[in-house]
Amino acid sequence: MPFIRSKGAIALLCALTCAASLSAATGASAEGSFAGALTVDGPSTGVTLLGDVEMAFDSSGVVAYVRSDEGADHAFISMLASGAPQSPVRVDPGQSPVIGKPVVGISNGGRMTVVYANTAGLWARVQITPGQPFSAPQQLGGPGANSPSLDMAPITGVAYVAWAENGSVRAAYLPRRVTNYTVYTGVANINPANSAASSPGLAPKVSTSADGTAIVAFGEVDGGTTRIGVRRLVRSAFSAVVMSAAAETLDGQAGGAADRPAIALQADSSFAWVVFSQSFADGVRRAVVRRVRASTLEAPKALADGAAIGASAGPTIGANDRGSGIINVQGADGTIWASIIRRSAVTGATALGSSAAQDAVPASSFAVDQFGVSAWAQAPGQEIIARNVAEDDALPAPPPFGAAALLSVPALGAVDAGGGLELATDRYGDSVIAFTQGPVGARSIQVASFSLPLKPVRLIGLAGWKRSLVPALSWWASAQGWPAQGYRVYIDNLLAGSATTTAFTPVSALGEGTHTVRVESFDRAGQTVSSSVGSLKIDTKAPILAVKLRRSGANVTVSGTATEPKPPKGAGLASVKVNFGDGSPSVTVRSSFFKLKHRSLRSGRMKVTVTATDAAGNRSIFGGKVNVNAAN
């Protein structure tokens, strides 16, 4: 019988699991913190559509979108620095208006590719390293090519793109270090005579593995029904095996038409997860997941506890290279469900929230380090809501999701769910959430973020004494994840100033002696963390040197004292060096009181030099002359 859940049961479940009251977007927690959206572009009449957002393991990121330029829609990108958008750049200059959404891929070091469609066909451009110009547009598909899906391996920079063209699924491969794709001959279709990827619900989705291969999932019309095809992409050729993923039966119900596929491939490309929507003989449309093992498919499993989903709803998956992740789907009653993939299995569903409109487009990101974020567009206000999870598959069960956070900016109007919701993460768990907001004519592209707790900096260069009252301070920041937005420097527990780099020089002079210093890191999400307290030692005063010279025939006696000024206690005397001026080697003593007797090697007027040096490097120098008779 159909799966039925009462509204009262949903309300109770959400009360128990959803933390219904929203936290501020900047509320910090032990697992990290959300920060509200920043504007990439707009609000303006020119902004029309979000395309894609991606991040590499090393935290470099990029968002692609559509904006009017020269009176027509064109493809733009904006680089993301710690989740903050940079100046937009058009990537299709001199070409006809774009159709649909541009897609992007990025890998460590900033290697990047962008793919977009226009009336002339499907085009790709590649940038090898940041700051270099993109390669010239390369045509991948002909007129009518549309719905590209792109994925770039975050370490190697190998990329695959799949798209719809004239009732077929086409594909292309980008090897590492090069700028030209290899376009596949033939098509990925289950049956080349069938029409595949002929509507948005049947559009292809591609996922790339660390080993340089990929996999594509797509919908295909087969007589009076639709099926889900899954096929591997092995560098420059399709695999000979194409799998049909739609369930023949599920929990005793015969399977029918299937659509809206999504797929995620592991670093070990033998395994992948494919999700899709499918109708069943009991009249219920459900979300389904299957694991791909080599060239076979494991048994199908219903998502969201088998709950009915809307006619236009489809599951989404955010997974890491190890095959762990989060699958989201919106139920027909509006409930936003999440299932965590752990230990090669899909857990039961958790209700994250609820949205009355059937266009919540829930989606997730999931990092290698097992930090995940789920987000959705929540009616009636069409706001972007997100929750995070700090997963640990060593635990017997997944931990609960954190409190809900509001990420969109109410003053900019309702979120355009039709524009899509895109998430991406680096290897650590810092994530971005991109969406379109505002009414037609005043739309904007927004990017919110989730950042992990900051790591304390390590103070450097404090081991010795400083010989400046305004000493230069520096520290090492963690190389993992996003850097801090800025740093506050405290000297003797008082705020001395702030910096945006890992260096700071006090504005006002400090006193002689020993001071405490610590550096507090902060980010735009409101998270702070302090370094350990270090000792900053300052000594700018030279030792006090008193010297007496005596001569008796060929003998010269040098005596005196070298003492540190007080107060405060300084670095301390390091050495006293005496040069008798007759070519003999200098003599060094390490006592504040000294008396040296020297027989000169020659006669004449000699210059005796005494240098007292403290541990900070400050010096006092005495010079005196004596007449020496070496004959005596």
Describe the structure.
By secondary structure, this protein is mainly β. The protein folds into three domains: 20-451, Methylamine Dehydrogenase, Chain H; 458-538, Immunoglobulin-like; 544-628, Immunoglobulins (Immunoglobulin-like), CATH 2.60.40.10. Helices cover 2% and strands 53% of the residues. Strands 21, 22, 23, 24, 25 and 26 form a six-stranded antiparallel beta sheet that branches. Strands 40, 42, 43, 45, 46 and 47 form a six-stranded mixed beta sheet that branches. A hairpin with a 4-residue loop joins strand 23 (271-280) and strand 24. The longest helix is centred in the first third of the chain and has 11 residues, at 7-17. The radius of gyration is 34 Å and the shape is elongated. Residues 1-21 have low confidence and may be disordered.
SSE arrangement:
Layout: H1 7-17, E1 28-29, E2 32-44, E3 47-55, E4 61-69, E5 72-81, E6 84-85, E7 89-90, E8 98-106, E9 112-118, E10 121-127, E11 138-141, E12 146-152, E13 159-165, E14 168-174, E15 182-183, E16 195-196, E17 205-208, E18 214-222, E19 225-234, E20 237-244, E21 249-250, E22 253-265, E23 271-280, E24 285-293, E25 296-297, E26 301-302, E27 316-319, E28 325-330, E29 335-342, E30 345-346, E31 350-354, E32 363-366, E33 371-378, E34 383-390, E35 405-406, E36 421-425, E37 431-437, E38 443-451, E39 458-460, E40 465-466, E41 473-476, E42 486-491, E43 494-499, E44 503-504, E45 513-522, E46 528-530, E47 534-538, E48 544-552, E49 555-563, E50 573-579, E51 587-589, E52 593-599, E53 604-614, E54 619-628
Parallel strand pairs: 40-47
Antiparallel strand pairs: 1-2, 2-38, 3-4, 4-5, 5-6, 5-7, 8-9, 9-10, 10-11, 12-13, 13-14, 14-15, 16-18, 17-18, 18-19, 19-20, 21-22, 22-23, 23-24, 24-25, 24-26, 27-28, 28-29, 29-30, 29-31, 32-33, 33-34, 34-35, 36-37, 37-38, 39-41, 41-44, 42-43, 42-45, 45-46, 45-47, 48-49, 49-52, 50-51, 50-53, ...
